[in-house]
Every structure is written in C-alpha cells, then in structure tokens.
Design goal:
The chain is an alpha/beta fold. 53% of the residues lie in helices and 12% in strands. The longest helix has 23 residues. It is globular, with a radius of gyration of 19 Å. The protein starts with 10 loop residues before the first strand and ends in a 5-residue tail after the last helix.
C-alpha cells in the first residue's frame, strides 16, 4: 500500500438549531471585526438572522449560478471598499462559490453556513464562468476556515431540490472512488458518505420536516466533499462543469442526471471499486443500488428537461474529452462519450 493523502485544515461544527451562536463563535475565533455577509436574495432574511450577532460591515446578495466573472469582480470590489476582514456565506453552492471567488484574490477567511447538500464548503476548489466556459481550480485560499452545519436551516428546502443536491453529493463520492488522486482514505470516506446519503435522502423525501434525515444527509454530504477534495475531479465532474458552463444548466440537477450514466460507464472496468460502491448502497451491484435510490426519490432524469439543446451533445464532446483525466477507468472516445451524453440528454436507461 503506497500513497500520499493530504487532509485539509478546517473546523467543522455540527450544531442543530444553533447556527447563529455557532457562527458568532467561529467569527470571534478569527478575531474578525468587519464581516461581509453573503447570501442570495431569497435567503437574505435567514442570513440576517444568522448575522444578527456578527460585526457585519457589508451585506452582499448578488449571487448567480456558476459564478460569472463579472459577478465575482463586483463582490471583490464590495469587499475591498468595505475593508472587510472575513466572509460569512449563507446558502448553497453558488453562494459558497461567490465567497470563494472573493477569497481567491483577497485571501479573506470564510465561515460557510450551507443550506443545501452541495459540499463546496468542504473543498479547496473554485469555479468561475466567462461566456460559455467554466474554469475550475484548486487553491488553499478558498477553503473555508470553518463550516457550521445546522440541519434546521434546510427544513424549508423543497424535496425536489434536496434530492438533486443530495445526488450531487453522491456524485462526489463516486468520483472520489477513481479520481486522479484517489487513495484508500478517500475511498473509505466516500463509501461512508454513500451509506449516509442512501439512508438520509429517503428519510428527507418521506418526512421533509423531520431532522433525522437532514442530519444524516448533511453528514454524508460532508464526507463526500472531503473525499472529493482529496481525490480530485473525475469524469463525472468534468462533464458537468463543461455542460453547466456551456448551457447554463442548473448545477445540482445536471449532476443528478449525469451520475448514473458515468457510474454505468466506469463501473465494469473496476470490479473491486464497483463492489465497494454496491456494498455501500446495500445492493447487488453499484448501478442497481443507485437506480433503486433514484427511483425512490423520483430523481431528475434528462438534461433536455433543464434546457440543454440537442445539438449541444456534439458541441460538448470535444471539451469533455479534453477535460477527462487520462486515467479514467474506461477509456473515453468521442463515440462512447457521445452515446453517454445522448442517453443523459434523453433520460434513457444508463445500462
């Protein structure tokens, strides 16, 4: 057994029902005195409640999916003009992504308060979009110093969004099994993440207001993100980043649609890893386990349902082939990738 594993330095606070006090404690630990509070317009009231005991100097609510460069520049300007010394972001992946964009150029510390299962809060990965191209990178400056998980903040998240966001977290687990830097620790974390998500998501769907399902899903989503941050972005995420930037597709739903097709594509080439994923699902095969979960959750099925044009299949093939890691378990060609994208666009059986 020969590998190198790096654990990222980050505080994680699970605090059901206690986000305001917990966030205030994390900000105090940073000795911050001028906070920039970042949230989407729909979550301003929640952010204000969490920020009530914070030294808020700037409130910023221009949050746009995939973090366009011009949006990031305006947020950076607001942080500079406000002389802020810390960022508190309250929201999903787009909100966290905007805070990361500010941290990337300013070095400001982030306290992240997630309201979805996106997982971006536990990674050192940033993403910016210009035109139809989404660029991602890795930088230690964008890793939030602290995360505060409060399952009560997700009680109003619609079931459909919980499902899409949770399957996005599952995609982190699957990619972590064979990502470019995947190691045994990543695979152990990812397997436990799959177990947590496979147990938590059906509970959320059955009882959206019950805390147990949300807490279990948050736990699984956190483990998924930690594994992904170490293992690196594999085929699944490369596909989704290209499609999201090129066609402005919704992030979580795109991941939810593409995941079963990538799993079916790669699993036969790595039987040992496939067996581990299947065991985490408690299923005979990995594909059967994911299929059963998706059917239980009525998960998103087709990219065309979210605005991807049919001619986008051919447009995306070249950029995706160029982006997929060379050591992907199954060799990627224009032909088999076209077939995969068409199946995802149509919503047909990934098998």
């Amino acid at each position: 057994m020969r590998f190198i594993h790096e654990t990222l330095p980050q505080r994680v606070v699970f605090a059901p029902g206690a986000a305001p006090a917990s966030v205030a404690a994390e900000v105090a630990a940073l000795k911050a005195t001028r906070v920039m509070l970042v949230s989407a317009p729909a979550e301003v009231a929640l952010a204000d409640r969490i920020g009530a005991d914070l030294p808020v100097a700037v409130r910023h609510d221009e949050v746009v999916m995939h973090v366009p460069v011009d949006v990031a520049e305006r947020a950076r300007k607001a942080a500079t003009e406000g002389a802020v010394d810390a960022l508190v972001c309250v929201g999903g992946g787009s909100t966290t992504g905007l805070a990361k964009a500010v941290a990337l150029t300013t070095g400001l510390p982030i306290v992240a308060v997630p309201t979805t299962y996106a997982g971006s809060e536990a990674t050192n990965v940033w993403g910016l979009t210009k035109g139809e191209v989404k660029t991602t990178g890795v930088d230690p400056r964008v890793l939030p110093r602290s995360i505060v998980y409060d399952a009560s903040l997700l009680s109003s998240l619609p079931v459909e969004m919980s499902v899409a966001s949770g399957i996005n977290a599952l995609a982190h687990c699957v990619d972590s099994m064979w990502g470019p830097r995947a190691d045994p620790i990543d695979r152990a974390l990812a397997a436990e993440g799959i177990r947590g998500l496979a147990q938590g998501l059906p509970a959320v769907a059955a009882d959206p207001t019950g805390p147990a399902g949300r807490e279990q899903t948050l736990y699984g989503a956190y483990l998924a993100a930690v594994a992904f941050a170490s293992a690196g972005s594999g085929m699944h995420h490369k596909i989704c980043h290209v499609l999201g930037g090129m066609f402005n597709l919704p992030h979580a739903q795109t991941h939810a649609v593409v995941l079963p097709h990538v799993l079916a594509f790669n699993a036969p080439a790595v039987p040992g890893t496939e067996r581990r994923i299947a065991e985490a699902f408690g299923s005979r095969t990995a594909v059967a386990g994911l299929t059963a979960l998706r059917e239980t959750l009525d998960a998103p099925r087709a990219l065309r349902d979210y605005g991807m044009p049919e001619d986008g299949i051919a447009r995306a093939v070249g950029p995706v082939v160029a982006a997929v890691p060379a050591d992907n378990p199954t060799a990627v060609t224009e032909e088999n990738l076209t077939a995969l994208l068409r199946a995802a666009w149509e919503g047909s059986d990934p098998a």
